Amino acid sequence: MSRLWKAIPALLLAACSCGGAEGAGKGTNGGGGDDMPKTTADPDARYAALEAGAEYASWQKMNTEPFFSKTHGKRMVDVYVNDIALEAFKDDEKPFPVGSVVVKTSWETKDKVATDVAGPIFVMEKKQQGYDPGNEDWWYALHWEQVPPEWRQRMGGTQTYWRSPSQKVGYCGGCHENFDRFIGGVPAEFQSWGAKEAADGAGDAK
Q: For the chain, how many structural domains are there in total?
């Protein structure tokens, strides 16, 4: 288990975890080359605009309807991928090309039902080989543009933006390490591509 993982406060994990305690692993963001900074250089960077995945609304949505994600803070989520990642996301045997981006939007829930309160946006981007071998070269980010009042004290303000190599997202790699290719994917019953392919197959059979 990584030192970074041990350093993450339990409260933070409960608030916006990508995995929670049960998903702990040894991966640590920022574990790449010697010239890689170990912390986010700009202390005000958490107030920046989302730099990877901001255009997710124009990408393919990978689920037919929002689904409950225990490992993303017990929120309802939607998943989007860019064109570079599309084929690899749909095929467990294909490696993700450099430049692949996966975005998971979220909503706060009550009794596993989505409310109208937006949660964080979670982002993964496949970087060049050697960026962070311990995490298969994935870059992680958590972006919460409007933190709800009840979370502001815990999250450090009205906006939160943590991304690799900040240790604030170190737990993301620790959780994703438990999945093949570091991707959790979309449950089969919510996969948009599976539903489309099944419908296409039914049409061909007529």
A: 1
